[in-house]
Design brief:
Shape: flat
Number of helices: 14
Bound molecules: guanosine-5'-diphosphate
Function: ATPase that binds to both the 70S ribosome and the 50S ribosomal subunit in a nucleotide-independent manner.
CATH superfamily of the largest domain: P-loop containing nucleotide triphosphate hydrolases
GO molecular function: ATP binding; ATP hydrolysis activity; GTP binding; metal ion binding; ribosomal large subunit binding
Keywords: ATP-binding, Magnesium, Metal-binding, Nucleotide-binding
Protein name: Ribosome-binding ATPase YchF
CATH architecture of the largest domain: 3-Layer(aba) Sandwich
Largest sheet: 6 strands, mixed
Radius of gyration: 23 Å
Number of domains: 3
Helix content: 40-55%
CATH class of the largest domain: Alpha Beta
Number of strands: 12
Order of helices and strands: EHEHEEHEHHHEHEHHHEEHHEHHEE
Strand order of the largest sheet: 2-4-1-5-6-7
Family: Belongs to the TRAFAC class OBG-HflX-like GTPase superfamily. OBG GTPase family. YchF/OLA1 subfamily.
Distance between the termini: 28 Å
């Protein structure tokens, strides 16, 4: 699962990305992740794993992870091919969701490309590039569909959706700001619109503003109001502090956070927000060798969840032996949970829940 970090120059992207790679999970544990200089892998914080490690006396813990993709190079005019324009846009196409870093800190030593700090203008600059790129695609598709629809009336709903999108994009609205029927949502998946991608706005604030999440920062207030209109989330961080935190070990990190009056690092909050924005949950496997969290989309059935571990597990799926994490904690041991009938045997139609501790049975 890849998230793309975008933003104008000098807003703090590299600082944040460096913090991500510094804090980075050991990539050896994540063979599925792409290892490239502009990709950072971050573990998803999950307190449940330590409990399971103690319970099963496991050798190691492998948390779930998400990948952050540093997509630098967006400037005004990217959709017209300025700067790294087209390359940039094709990178955005690959990510599941967008993290847009927005500068909310004032610092006269660090110039802003457009003169002053103004998050809404910055957001508009970036979003317009995505909108222009989408508009071009939609216009082409409208023309094509208008021809085809003459011989195939079943394309009428698609044409009407395309026209509605065209009108919105022409007005400078992101595709994500419209409402869609279920049928339209299916169609949209085939369009691959950039301005449809879920987005988190990362408000980069000054060091002394992060503890109260920038409540007194007018830039953050305006950003929050705007994000509401898009149903987008805002995560307030201080990239500079994140870079410092990333250099600390676990214990030092806790002390430092406490001094700052923070419960969690900004990066941890960002990872969790990203996870939930994408509708992701974790199920867990536990044994003496390792405890591991596996990422699935909410609503995934048992065989497909098993397929995350190995395709053989999906193909040869027989059943899943499931106990909810909380039941396991309440009972103390797996055996006690079993005695109380809380270890269930689930079949192919079972929808895996967040925190399910699972043992899959399968044929090879
Ligand atoms: P990028 O161009 O978006 O990648 O921005 P950088 O990460 O290179 O940051 C641009 C400048 O802003 C650098 O000098 C950073 O040290 C500084 N910077 C980044 N985050 C913060 C912050 O939270 N507070 C302050 N005061 N400066 C920051």
């Amino acid at each position: 699962m890849k998230l793309g970090i975008v933003g104008l120059p000098n807003v703090g992207k590299s600082t944040l990305f460096n913090a991500i790679t510094q804090a980075g999970a050991e990539s050896a544990n994540y063979p599925f992740c792409t290892i490239e200089p502009n990709i950072g892998v971050v573990a998803v914080p999950d307190n449940r794993l330590q409990f399971l490690k103690d319970l099963y006396q496991s050798e190691k813990v492998i948390p779930a992870a998400i990948e952050f993709y540093d997509i630098a190079g967006l400037v005004r005019g990217a959709s017209k091919g300025e700067g790294l324009g087209n390359k940039f846009l094709s990178h955005i196409r690959e990510v599941a969701s967008i993290l847009q870093v927005v500068r909310c800190f004032e610092d006269s030593n660090i110039t802003h490309v457009d003169g002053d700090v103004n998050p809404l203008r910055d957001i508009e600059t970036i979003n317009l590039e995505l909108i222009f790129s989408d508009l071009e695609m939609v216009e082409r598709r409208v023309q094509k569909t208008e021809k085809l629809v003459k011989g195939d009336k079943s394309l009428l709903p698609e044409l009407s959706l395309l026209k509605r999108l065209q009108a919105a994009l022409e007005e400078g609205l992101s595709a994500r700001s419209l409402e869609y029927t279920e049928e339209e949502q299916e169609l949209l998946k085939t369009f691959g619109l950039l301005s449809m991608k879920p987005i988190i706005y990362v408000a980069n604030v000054a060091e002394d503003e992060v503890a109260d999440e920038g409540v007194n920062n007018p830039h953050v207030q305006r950003l929050r109001e705007f994000a509401k209109t898009e149903d987008a989330e805002v995560v307030v961080i201080c990239a500079k502090i994140e870079a410092e935190i990333a250099e600390l070990d676990e214990e030092e990190k806790e002390i430092f956070l406490e001094e700052l009056g923070l419960q969690q690092s900004g990066l941890d909050r960002l990872v969790q927000a990203s996870y939930s924005l994408l509708g992701l949950i974790s199920y867990l496997t536990a044994g003496p060798k390792e405890v591991r969290a596996w990422t699935i989309k909410r609503g995934t059935k048992a065989p497909q969840a098993a397929g995350k571990i190995h395709t053989d597990f999906e193909r040869g799926f027989i059943r899943a032996e499931v106990v909810a994490y909380n039941d396991l904690v309440n009972c103390g041991t797996h055996a006690a949970a079993k005695e109380k009938g809380l270890v269930r045997l689930e079949g192919k139609e079972y929808i895996v829940q967040d925190g399910d501790v699972i043992l899959f049975r399968f044929n090879v």
